[in-house]
Amino acid sequence: MTATLLLLLPLLLPFAVPVPARRALDRLAPVTALWVITLCAVVLAGCSLAALGTFVLTGLLRLPAFAALGELVHPLSTASGPVVLPAAAVSVGALAVCAGTLGRAALKEFRAFRRARTEAGRRPAAGDLCVIDSPRPDAYALPGRPHRIVVTTAMLRSLDAAEREALFAHERAHNRGGHHYFLAVAEIAAHCHPALRPVRRAIRLAAERAADEAAAAAVNDRRLTARAIARAALAGQEARSARPGLAPAAASGPVPHRVRALLAAPHVTRRAATCAAALLLACATVSSASSVTGLIDFHHRVEIAQGEESR
């Protein structure tokens, strides 16, 4: 029963993470928050998948047919026998749902990315800047080789020269920081466990905040950067964007929150920041320890069932 409880812990801990993730986003520097929250999401998602997989294998190896395939002398023995098969059945369903939704999302994203790269490839580029003639105001960082900053003519008309420079600095910061990788990891984690969907939003916001700060430093004007982001968001709020989901954009996320952060003086309390980061890392550590201990116990029971080790 203890091993079963240890494997349940990685499935329950993600529900405790969204609130600390939001607090970490408010208390940590944006780049630090981006790394800490993403690392925590990766560990929690991986541990939850490991727990589900262990439940499935435990249930299968209790059946004589699968025990024979696994070269077990006798079916796997567990202290929590009555709950193993139902848990295995639920785990199979959960893994199937994860794989199905993630596969559909990946296919949709691949098609959107290919369309965006094709559209950008048809246009002449000025350095990394690609201007698309469109009535929809939009601008985003398009990853790939080479990186591109895609902006529509409608968005260019919506901003003055200084605001356009701030917008371009924001999008270049996304490409320079590899933020599309963080967004991809957040998307995968959200499909691995439903409780990590709010964490996906926190990671997206952390990426936007990091790019906001980089743009403000590049143009040396926080107020100008805030105004550019606000005007870009207002211009694009009525337009349906065709950008890929993993292409970060200045006008995405909770723009009022980002504008307030830019207009306020940067201030991070070291004690509060340390507590926020420590809480997230503690959740990841406990989840890792529980899943590893559960896997070790599972391996020990398999060796016993194979006759390689005594009880």
UniProtKB/TrEMBL annotation:
Which Pfam family, giving just one, matches this sequence? Peptidase_M48
Spell out the InterPro entries in the cross-references.
Answer: Beta-lactam_resp_regulator, Peptidase_M48
Q: What is its EC number?
A: 3.4.24.-
Q: Please give the superkingdom of this protein's source.
A: Bacteria
Gene Ontology molecular function: metallopeptidase activity
Q: Where is the Peptidase M48 domain?
A: 124-184
Cofactor comment: Binds 1 zinc ion per subunit.
Transmembrane domains' residue ranges:
33-52, 83-107
Enzyme class (EC, first level): hydrolase
Cofactor(s) this protein requires: Zn(2+)
**Keyword entries, A-Z:** Hydrolase, Membrane, Metal-binding, Metalloprotease, Protease, Transmembrane, Transmembrane helix, Zinc
Asked if the record carries the keyword Transmembrane helix, the reply is yes
UniProt family annotation? Belongs to the peptidase M48 family.
Q: Which PANTHER family match?
A: POSSIBLE SENSOR-TRANSDUCER PROTEIN BLAR, SLR0241 PROTEIN
Name this polypeptide is given: M48 family metalloprotease
Protein species of origin: Streptomyces kebangsaanensis
